[in-house]
Amino acid sequence: MNSLNTKVWSAETVSADLERAIHEHRLPPGTKLGEDELGEAYGISRTIVRAALLALSHRHLVELKRNRGAFVAQPSVREAREVFEARALLEPRTAWSAAERMTDDGLALLHENIRQEHAALDAGENGRALYLSGQFHIEIARIADQTTIEGFISELISRSSLIIALYWRRRAAMCETQAHHALLDAFEGRDGATAEQLMKSHLLDLIASLDLRNVTQPPASLREALNR
Amino acid sequence: MNSLNTKVWSAETVSADLERAIHEHRLPPGTKLGEDELGEAYGISRTIVRAALLALSHRHLVELKRNRGAFVAQPSVREAREVFEARALLEPRTAWSAAERMTDDGLALLHENIRQEHAALDAGENGRALYLSGQFHIEIARIADQTTIEGFISELISRSSLIIALYWRRRAAMCETQAHHALLDAFEGRDGATAEQLMKSHLLDLIASLDLRNVTQPPASLREALNR
DNA sequence: GCATCGGAAATTGTATACAAAGTTGTGCCC
DNA sequence: GGGCACAACTTTGTATACAATTTCCGATGC
Q1: pLDDT tens for each residue of B76-102
Q2: Cβ–Cβ gap B55/A51 under 8 Å
């Protein structure tokens, strides 16, 4: 397929590779992930593919349907709300902690992240920009030195990317880099309270940019959808 | 071994069974979980066992050491702190939500849970009591109608059980049933603010009952420990 | 006695074979 | 032509065979 054969793949690297592809919208929600297909693409047996798909299903990025196969997840409106509820509980306080423990290295990483995101947007690589935008949030948890919370946020960020793929409303380019800039300012001033507040607003903006009315819901079953 | 052969086991049921055993301290931290051993015990092949162990490792209840095997996880002091940090972010607000949405069915379930926990304590079944005590917290998230957060809390609760196994200090019986009673009262009064506050205190009490000084830390490697 | 170096045994890692379930296509019947 | 049944094909589920690695144990040398 591509350069997938040049690397030694393991269940971890394959699932990370797939997660990034999902995050960047190269694998849109609902995509069938056939085991043979993936095995040939990566040059590995189905054993490893299955372990990778299992890992992704535990992160709710892939849905395993018994005897039917693996599909990129399609979060429901309800799940979308829940994901942002969880982020609202975890991220603002974590931003506060990050501000308190901020180091110059941390600031440099965040700066570099924003720079790359701008570059990606300028190059029209929207998927890559979205991925980098997510990494910004994960980097904050890392700076806050909270590995456990970082794991949860990392999963929620990837799920958010699926939600954005399904429910994104604004066609205007992601104006959120402004929010990240503002956060960076707060971090530079080691201002925990402001960082927490900015993160809270940022998440509210994000969910406000989605169309979570039940109308756009993908049909539970094709049969049901057509019988309406 | 026991009645394990009477049931049709799948990766999901096996990992749930193991998780409960870990939660109840029947499988203490550090226990080796051999694949053949488990396969024979449950009457299934290593394929299913591996899928179950993989699931548990994703929940941080089992540590997979490459070419060495699977072991019941031994959370570090640092990890212990992180788990309770995460719980402190998630559970108090979730308790508030639960209070707001509380139903009579929900109250009955919580009541029954406390009753069974008392019964288990009276019967000297400490492991079972600990498990039920965890279920109380998970039930709250369920009543709050937050499936995603419930999943995170469920993982954190199981990890807390490992932490208790390693760092529990008070020999006195778990006095925390008092805390659960107080929470139940707040729920009965649909008093979100009090429920949130009680949950916060409850978690602080819990972490205060642990000995998280670095001294008791199990050595990273036996060799290193002996060379000191 | 102690450390070190094989080599056998045991255990995990990966691929593959076969079974089971689902999907698709064809032809028959009405 | 539409509906249905059955068969061929495709895909996933599980077990097992074999390879790779570690562990255990005893022999060897100092």
Answers
A1: 999 999 999 999 999 999 999 999 999
A2: no
